[in-house]
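User: Second chain of the day. Same drill as before.
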Amino acid sequence: MGNGLTQDTEELAYRIRRLALEMVHRADSSHIGGALSVADILAVLYGRVLRVRPEEPEWPERDRLVFSKGHACTALYAALALKGFFPLEELADFGSPGTRLLGHVSHHVPGVEWSTGSLGHGLGLACGQALAALRRGASWRVFAVLSDGELDEGSTWEAVLFAAHHRLGNLTAIVDRNRQQALGDTENILRLEDICAKLRAFGWQALEVDGHDHRALLSALEAAVSDSAPTCIVARTVKGCGVDYMENRLEWHYRAPKTRELLESALRELAQRYGRPYEPPSMGDGGGKG
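Assistant: Same format as last time:
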């Protein structure tokens, strides 16, 4: 897809996108657009930044990632499985009766810090973990991945105030700025811009980068370390990134690629964009929600 930092993060992003597409197709689920927009962010975090131990998910010194946009769970589940937190084969259970791979991320899944649901709470949870680390003298960092739509929530801005007041320099928020939310364009529903200017006024360090450029993402994440202020990275992304018929199409917030033809078309295009040979779907049809 170009602009890649290294082969390993590009490969991770490609696999995250492939698996997310297959999971949503198999379960006849939704939110594939937001899963595809956040894939590069997760690839750089898990490929280059986060200090974690997949074989020891509760390692006390691990970095914490709060995935606040939990409706894009297929991308996170794929990243965790690819890193070895649980078997890849379990991804085929997504959305099935009795599975722990629910439609919002669940803390019962190894590697998931918090369960999600109603938007707007992730940054507050991350603030609590960051403050706890400072008070304990711990070295772990806290990262929160937010949707831009949840910046509509007042609870998010309470957390912004809290983080600046307590000088949570070990906290980094990343906003997946794909400019679309459930019912339309973010700027038509509730104008957000200029996000960076707002955050700086609250006392944050704020950076804006191309959210699909691995080198730019890594540079911003490395610059986020601060002794005195939290950092927010506003990552400009494309909803549905990687699949032409999904890109910037609001319908793919909820719609699933139900037919085999739609899935295979998406996987073929994804392989072409990444310069990979086409691989047929690895999961069979027919999971689905109970």
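The chain has a mean pLDDT of 91.

User: Great, on to the next one.
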